[in-house]
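Can't paste images in this forum, so I'm doing it all in text. The chain is below; anyone willing to post the predicted structure tokens underneath?
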Amino acid sequence: MIMRDDVLAWLNSFRQVLAENKVYLTELDSAIGDADHGINMDRGFGAVEAKLPSVVNSDIASILKMVGMTLVSTVGGAGGPLYGTFFMRAGAAVAGKMELSAADFLAALEAGLAGVQQRGKATTGEKTMIDALTPARDALRTAVENGSSIGEALRASVTAAEQGMKATIPMLATKGRASYLGERSIGHQDPGATSSYLMLKCAADTWSKL
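Text version of the structure:
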């Protein structure tokens, strides 16, 4: 089971990884966006880190809701509303829980992805974070249905997310700021798909022994 402290450890890990990859994510965004994705995500999760001590005794849903609301209020561009929606919807899917099974985490990921799709009005193949999250969800679902452990299921999910992230490189962007570039968007890896992959990789690394 994924305990509340495991969720807090995941969020702290993701915060550190975003700080380490701030320049990289911003460089990716400079090619096809506003050159601020890494900066914005680092700022947002810096604010999350500051608020985590206030929710250490809360249930997992409340923690995820706090993350979502903080990101909406502190992250500029599309990242704030999209990641904010992801975490708020994920939290709503596990209301009242102090621990999560693999199936619970799948429900959270499914709800978060659905929220992002609804908010961004995007689908796969449009060069967005959905291109990493959708295969990750599908692989996680298959692993859960096959009775895999949480660690195994997450590793399968991350492998799929990485493949989805890399698959954005040859895509023509048809959503968001990158779509303004038309054919010039081809050949660049999507920054949102990259941060989504990093988010799931942090979960897999943090919960690898579960």
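The CA atoms of residues 4 and 98 lie 6 Å apart. The radius of gyration is 16 Å.
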